[in-house]
Amino acid sequence: MERIGFLLSITFLLVLQYSSVGTVGVAETNITTDQSALLALKSHITSYPHNILFNWSTTTSVCNWVGVTCGARHLRVASLNLSYMGLTGTIPPHLGNLSFLVELLFINNSFHGTLPKELAYLRRLKLISFRYNNFMGSIPLWFGSFPKLQSIDLRGNQFSGSIPAIIFNLSALQVINLSNNHQEVYQEK
Hints:
alpha/beta, 6-stranded mixed β-sheet, 23% helix, LRR_dom_sf, transmembrane, glycoprotein, signal, leucine-rich repeat
């Protein structure tokens, strides 16, 4: 009987040890995913004055990078604020891998091109502001798929076409600013 109890104790300890190792591995993979997404963004930035993104490297913790704030609970990227940094570039699809992102702010830079459809994966977003950049194309329909989105600010870009009506159905949305673009006003028939 003692032998069975001893074997059960050993088995329990081994399971506990390996499940702890597995949990750490998952956390490292997740922050590694965030790091890869941000390094992809850095590679799409063609100009950053004064080497402002100097610490965006594998030798520095992602949570200590300029413009990055990590959440206290999961230690994942929760806010990306690259506003007023004089950056020029495009947004890569990899940014859609920042699954814990709540705020995305690229205010007053020179980002250009279209917004990648992979940004639709950022389901926790509450605030998105790309104001005063040079984004173009139509405002994507996937803007209507953010259940927690409270504020959209896309003013001062080159967006054109009609404004997707689905944006106005977001239940949490409190603020929307699409001025100084080239959109047509949506009218319900």
